[in-house]
Amino acid sequence: MDLPRRLPALLALLALLAWAAARGFASAELDEIRTGLRAAGRADRDSAEAAARARARLDPAGVAALWPDLDLRGRCALVRAIAGAGTRHAAAVSHRWLAATEPELYAALLTGLVEGGAAALFATLPEETPPARRSAIEEIRLRWRTEEELAARKATHGPTGHYAGQYSKVKELGPGAIPFLFDILTDSDRPIPGEAGAGRYEPIHPDMARFESTELRHMVANSFAQVVDRQDAATMVRLTQIWDTYWRAYEHDASRVFEHEELAPALSFSLYDLGLVDPAQRYIEELERRLRSRSPRAWNAVRWDLGYAYIRIGRLDEGERMYQMILDDPWIESRSLAAYNLACNFSMRGMQESDPDRADYFRRRAVTYLDLAVRRYQYVDWPWMEEDRDLDFIRQEPGYKALLALLQKRFPDRRRAEVSKDRNKILNPPPGEERAEEPK
């Protein structure tokens, strides 16, 4: 037997047999997917759709060949699976349904493209894509990019309504992001993508899962002024109407405390930044009324809000008085924010001071209170400390830089677990790290 001469033929035969076996296996797998997509049971259909998505990563055209054998429900599942396979090749195959007349198929395609991630959603659209549908996909892409930027700003140690870099990054999004910021702010959604339809806002970027249910709205309410032109009358009117809805929410529905107690104040300060002072003034008047009418036991909660509100609109002496009352109360467990906000207060007063000696006095006071917040009262939110514009006046001070370096060293990951576990390190600083003296 002349094996060397026959080896190429044998290898070719083996390759042909392997191809035939693979084709047979693929055919059997497609038959199974076809059967599953036709099934009445939801579990069988879900399993078949997952298998179709996995197969589409390897052979999207082969999976698409199942189309003639399916009813509308099965075809929707097929389109969604191919679009959601997460590859540009599969997305390109799914684009054949961009002109589908059935709204269910079109919604399935959009949902699949979102589920497929950036590779699917940003795959190049064919030139013949209908203009209206091209525009719709561009809107979804903008929504994806908007949420991607917002997700990148989230502090990793819990919801605060403020996030590292949020103002500058929201500003970078530009006016084009306003429609989606409004969607977030009003907790509304567009009919696409997804099966739920209009209603509760459902983020589409996967990293948005890190946000808790309400904090995304709080973040947008805090920073909306970064992308709005105060000369845009229509947008200003709409923002004011949303604020009014939030402000009245609690009077009509006690379950909507978040809108009344959190979103209304945050949005009132955004409007204040845009030159509309009435919402912030009404909020302060309401807090002042509560302070007069409530018992001493409930005063501290109002003082927190009132101190922040006073400082936020520049009534710095009054803000200092409120926070100093909190700091002087030994029964309040968490006084870190009071000390931190006093640091912000004195920093802003220094910015506004024309007398160099007075400015230097306020600078020293700001650093002292910030030191007190960190070393004595365990303030740890250094990402926000870096972003907080109120502290710009002391940013170059050695005391500020030392405190920032201390927190960055002790809490490099800024995780809740790290913060909780390492609080004792601040209570017992290493030798040479003196604690701040309580200001008199």
Note down, in words, how this protein is organized.
This protein has 440 residues and is an all-alpha fold. The chain folds into 3 domains: 30-129; 131-253, no CATH class; 333-440, no CATH class. Helices cover 66% and strands 0% of the residues. The chain contains 22 helices and no strands. The chain has helices at residues 3-38, 42-58, 60-64, 72-83, 88-94, 103-115, 118-121, 131-153, 166-173, 178-185, 215-223, 233-252, 257-273, 278-293, 296-312, 316-327, 336-352, 356-376, 382-387, 398-410, 416-421, 423-427. Helix 14 runs antiparallel to helix 15, helix 15 packs parallel to helix 17 (336-352) and helix 18 runs parallel beside helix 20 (398-410). The longest helix has 36 residues, at 3-38. The model is unreliable at 16-25, 157-162, 193-198 and 415-436 (pLDDT under 50).
Summarize the SSE layout with pairings.
Layout lengths: L2 H36 L3 H17 L1 H5 L7 H12 L4 H7 L8 H13 L2 H4 L9 H23 L12 H8 L4 H8 L29 H9 L9 H20 L4 H17 L4 H16 L2 H17 L3 H12 L8 H17 L3 H21 L5 H6 L10 H13 L5 H6 L1 H5 L13
Helix pairs in contact: 1-2, 2-4, 4-5, 4-6, 8-9, 11-13, 12-13, 13-14, 14-15, 15-16, 15-17, 16-17, 17-18, 18-20
